[in-house]
Amino acid sequence: MSCPILSENQTKRLHLPYPMLVCFAMFNAWQMGFIYFAGPSLVVDGRTPLPISMDNITIVIVAAYLLAIILMIAIPRKVVWAARLSALASLVTISGLFLPLSPEALTMLVYLHVFFCCFMIGFESYIIINLFAEETVITHLTIAYAAATLLVSIVQNDVVPVSFPVFRVLCVIMLFMMLWFFFHLPANREAYPVYVTRNDDMVRPRKLFGGIYVLIFVACIMMLAGPAAAANVPNGVSISYFADAVAAVLLYMLYKKCNIHPIRTVSLFIGFSVVGFLFMFLTEYQPSLAYPACILMGFGFMPCQLLPMYGFILMKQYPSRYITSSIMILAVITVVIQSGLVELFRSAPNMLHLAYMAITVILAMIYLQLAPYLLYTMKKHIPLCEKTPDGQIISVLRDERPAASIKAYVSETERADTNQLEATAVIEEAAQSVMEDKAEPPAAEEAHTETTPSHTELLLSRLTRREREVLDLISCGYSNGDIAKALYISEHTVKDHTKNIYRKLEVHSRHAAAQIINRHEAGLR
């Protein structure tokens, strides 16, 4: 596969400080807050409600999404400039709401502001997926988002109501913070990633792409379902977003203090959401469960909040310009589906909560199947390779020698495998000897603690170099056909390697094999 593209993209990714990320996260508070206020009852400076139509608002939102998708496909290397101009236009339109204009003019400004709110949603995801480094992605989607989500919780509460004039001032402050962030981002062509083309020697991991897109699709539905269900409880939306902020801080602390990657804990938060929807269903019989339900559903927002991370994983493995736009298209489709579900169960809201719970269970099942591939790909080290002017590929991790082509490297690998096969029996005999040593008395076992390899290491030591490469691709979500194309071997050969991997690792599925190598990467026994 074409290593130089992945390596070059990896070196371009940005490591940003927390204050910058908080400024960027203000987009979330601004967008969600303004959509919350933008309705037929919107009153500016104590005047009569503006003549705003929700049908027009819907048309504006759809138009903004579609235009953003077109822009990200047609001119992806202009996204930062588009974000800058959109933030400036948003600042102009919100400033116009301070002026003593006619109701019709104010209404038009509201429509324009809603347009830019939604137009920039795709740009936010694009910047995270295409420009941020892994550490920055995690920090932004957890602790930086916590600050923004806390503001959303405050705006949407009814205990200490926030008026639109107050929020209008907050919008100006948040937009200035966002502008500061956008103008500190590099916008030159070299700052953007290199996108794969048909001429590049890369294979798209179809299994990984398909699974993640299904995961994103279901998570998008849940991202809309949670607030919709919480809206039936007084202050329910505010409580849910406050719980989401707490969950984000908790996730970040687990990551920084306990070295637990967010991907490992997502299933737990999905479980909270399942229980939350169950409690919401039971509120018809036990109303006191309403607020615990909102809290649990708020914790369940976290898997949805991490959607850009899943796009980052795709981009890291196969840098396509269509990843962010595909996610946006899925988001638009889920809005239609969510509206259909609400309409279908309008007369039976409890059945709607059961439907949400069933969808959340499906989300959990999908996630558990994908988790090993997501984790391995997220933490996978990108080989430091580069391409010479004459097209040769240099791998600085192996031996610094240029290979005339990928196929030449494959032949070299096969020769190395032949040599390694001769040593396999010796390795397995040594592994068996170590396993027998574990039966020694405790004192003897304690004496060997520092030098005894883990069981996972022993299993992996049985693999040949080629089998390790096949296992690496399996753990990245590649199908047998994809692996055959990537390694220039037949699919039958891939199947043979896979059978050997299963036998040597003592597993019976790709999922279990990926879990083995993840345990090895995590240093678990």
Structure write-up:
The protein is mainly α. The two termini are 31 Å apart. It has helices at residues 3-12, 18-37, 54-74, 79-96, 103-119, 121-131, 134-155, 164-184, 206-230, 236-258, 262-282, 290-299, 301-305, 307-317, 323-344, 349-379, 406-437, 442-447, 455-461, 465-475, 480-487, 491-505, 510-522; strands spanning 385-387, 393-395, 402-403. The protein has a three-stranded antiparallel sheet. The longest helix is centred in the last third of the chain and has 32 residues, at 406-437.
Number of helices: 23
Give me the count of strands. 3
What's the mean pLDDT score? 83
- Say what the CATH topology of the largest domain is: Growth Hormone, Chain: A
Which structural class is indicated by helix and strand composition? mainly alpha
Order of strands across the biggest sheet? 1-2-3
Percent strand? under 5%
Q: Which radius of gyration do the C-alpha atoms yield? A: 26 Å
> What is the terminal separation in angstroms?
31 Å
Query: How many strands, what sense, and barrel or not for the largest sheet?
Result: 3 strands, antiparallel
- Tally of separate domains: 2
Order of helices and strands: HHHHHHHHHHHHHHHHEEEHHHHHHH
Helix content: over 70%
**Level-2 CATH architecture of the largest domain:** Up-down Bundle
CATH top level label of the largest domain: Mainly Alpha
Shape: globular
Runs in which pLDDT lies below 50 for 5 or more consecutive residues are 386-431, 433-451
User: What is the assigned CATH homologous superfamily of the largest domain?
Assistant: MFS general substrate transporter like domains
